[in-house]
Amino acid sequence: MRVLICYASTEGQTRKICRFCAEQLIAHGHSVEMLPVAEAGEIALAPFDAAILAGSVHLGRLQAPLSAFAADHALALNRLPTLFLVVSLAIASGEAEDRAELDRIAAEFCAGGGWRPGRILHVAGAFRFSEYDVFRSLAMRWIARRRGQQVDPHQDREYTDWPALAEALAEWAGPGA
Ligand SMILES: Cc1cc2nc3c(=O)[nH]c(=O)nc-3n(C[C@H](O)[C@H](O)[C@H](O)COP(=O)(O)O)c2cc1C
């Protein structure tokens, strides 16, 4: 398969997740074009056999440029096998309430533009204090405290479950993957 991976990443974890997906797919014989949404512009989807869109949740929403891309290409995307990677910290809690909120965020993202992803996968992201400004760092420490999590503001902390992601990706890409 020739797979397009189009992503939006504010602090870099979604980019890292997409790079991992690209490596996995390539290792299984697929070819991959991985593009930040800002560079995807008017890309034609016709040459691709499948597509992955990936974005991260900030203040209850995914990145607007990714939503615009999904809306602009909804018709073509709906003809392909697609996977929507929704990166967040809330999914790491394992709480049903958090999961329901993330499902709502993903559904809202898709409803606006008419894209119907073949599969939606929630992926735990990371605290990236090395990328935050003072305001973000304080906000994230506050969020962590409210959730009863201990975080060291001098250290990034990753929650992404790489083996689970590899498994879900292989399942999506089919027996050849
Ligand atoms: C300012 C800010 C707001 C965030 N808001 C949310 C949120 O509403 N829900 C959530 O689950 N995660 C939230 N996160 C966590 C991000 O989704 C997580 O850090 C993710 O790994 C970011 O991916 P990225 O580095 O690709 O942008 C927030 C992070 C920041 C910095």
Automatic annotation (TrEMBL):
Q: Which residues form the Flavodoxin domain?
A: 4-150
| Annotated TM spans | none
Alphabetized SUPFAM superfamilies for the sequence: Flavoproteins
Domain of life the protein comes from: Bacteria
Per UniProt, what is one Pfam family of this protein? Flavodoxin_5
InterPro entries of this UniProt entry?
Answer: Flavodoxin_dom, Flavoprotein-like_sf, Protoporphyrinogen_IX_DH
Q: What is the name of this protein?
A: Flavodoxin domain-containing protein
- Protein source organism: Pseudodonghicola flavimaris
